[in-house]
Each structure stands twice: as structure tokens, then as C-alpha cells.
Amino acid sequence: MSELRADTITASNGTSPVTLTKQSAAKAYWSAIGTSASINSGSLNTSGLTDNGAGDFTVAFSNSLSSANYSYGGTAGRPSSTDITSINLQSFGGAILSGSYRYKITESNANVDNAYDGISAIQIFGDLA
């Protein structure tokens, strides 16, 4: 069994450090509404959201991960009910970086993919630097 390593990040309210002792603990998470291009309150280890264009976002981490070999997962959706076939969330093509995560949201409607500024909720798992 591997040894658990304690990683530390600063609490969002600035009062004290927070220790993440389990390797399986999320090292960053956030939710955002693309049309406002801002992260909702209650996020962890995020310092900003950049809107790179329709459906294309980059979240900067407050504390970088030890490498770009981390795991990510999440979901995307529409803030209101519509007849959209599906909404997809995927990593943006190109290099994965240890200090930020770039992702793309698209919608499929009548077999046509379009960029979409929807709701996203993403989690990052890995080791902090």
C-alpha cells in the first residue's frame, strides 16, 4: 500500500491551510455558467475562469498539480429545458497543463455539433505540486 501524502492549499476564506490527506480527494472542483464566464462560489483550488470563445473555457488552479497527468471528470448542461439531443464536455485539444484546465462544451442537435456556453461542473484528481 502506498503512503498517503498530505498536500496543503489555502482555505478560500484565507483563515488557515486545508490539508488533503487522501490521494483520492479532489484537488480542484468548480461549477460555472458559461454565459457569465465566472466560477460559482463553493469552488476549490481555482483562481479564475477565462472565456476563450463560444463554449471554450480555461480554469486556472490556485495551486498547480505536480504534473499534467491528472484525471478529470464532469458534466455540462443547459440552464433551462430544451429539445437538445445532447450536451458534451471534453478536454480542449492540445497540451494538458498542470496549472490550468481548458475544456470545450458542445451541443448536438440534429447531428450538428455547435459550441455552447452552458453550465459546467468539473472535478480534478491528482497530486498537488
Low-confidence stretches: 1-5
Task: Determine the fraction of residues in helical runs and give it as a percent range.
Answer: under 10%
The rounded Rg comes to: 16 Å
Please state roughly what percent of the residues sit in beta strands, choosing from under 5%, 5-15%, 15-25%, 25-35%, 35-45% or over 45%. over 45%
Give me the number of helical elements.
Answer: 0
Kindly state the mean pLDDT as a whole number?
A: 79
Reading the helices and strands in chain order gives EEEEEEEEEEE
Main beta sheet strand tally, sense and closure: 5 strands, antiparallel
Distance between the termini: 22 Å
Anisotropy-based shape: globular
Going by helix content, strand content and strand pairing, the class is mainly beta
Kindly state the number of beta strands: 11
